[in-house]
Amino acid sequence: MASILVPTFHIAQAVVSAYGFYTSYVSITNLQKHEEKSEKAAQWSNTAAHQLHKTRTTQATGAGAILASLVASLVLFICPSLPIAAVAAVNFGIAGIVLAARIHIGNFWKGKARVPFVGGYNEGMKRTEELFRLLGLLAISWAITGVSDFLFVSLV
Predict the structure, then answer these.
(1) What is the C-alpha separation between 90 and 33, in angstroms, rounded?
(2) How many CB atoms lie within 10 A of CB 68?
(3) Which of 36, 35, 37, 27 shows the shortest CA–CA distance to 58?
(4) If you average pLDDT over every residue of the chain, what do you get?
(5) Average pLDDT over residues 95-104
(6) Are 32 and 25 in contact (CB under 8 A)?
(7) What is the pLDDT of residue 140?
(8) What CA–CA distance (Å, rounded) separates 122 from 30?
(9) CB neighbours (10 Å) of residue 64?
């Protein structure tokens, strides 16, 4: 039972991570449609420049964390016989990375208002909110698989 359950967790994480990567891609693509206007505004305003920088860094943070989650889940699925210390380090390390990305994104995007008549930007915000929720789900799942892997691997 344990030998089937643990790889199933990692496949589920890979599926959620792959969807998160797609969501991140769509979000970045939609937000980039309005980058030219933002760059022009940034030339005249330090606040606009800061907002543009934070938009870019939060999107990159989310994409990077999702990609790390995807790669780690696939590695743990493909290589189930890794040493327990390595498995624990990967599980709890990715949980920390994903949680830190979620906090970083939430701190910037929380409370941002939709912009009337700017559909692509609003769609980008909507996808970023979805990514925020997926990162929360992944953080919890990585913590759970960390404990599960430790218990199941040490019992086997």
Answers:
(1) 36
(2) 18
(3) 27
(4) 83
(5) 96
(6) no
(7) 96
(8) 8
(9) 13
The number of helix segments (H) and strand segments (E) in the chain equals 5, 0
**pLDDT over 60 at 2, yes or no:** no
Dist CA 3 CA 80 (whole Å): 9
Q: How many CB atoms lie within 10 A of CB 17?
A: 26
* Whole-prediction pTM: 0.84
As given in the structure block, the two tokens for residue 21 are: 């990567």
CB-facing half-sphere around the CA of 140: CA atoms within 13 A: 6
d(CA 131, CA 29): 14
CA nearest to 94, candidates 7, 17, 12? 17
Closest C-alpha to 70, from 23, 125, 3, 129: 23
Q: Kindly tell me the burial class for residue 9, based on how many C-beta atoms sit within 10 Å of its own C-beta (0-12, 13-18, 19 or more).
A: buried
pLDDT of residue 43 exceeding 80: no
Residue 139 in contact with residue 98, Cβ under 8 Å?
A: yes
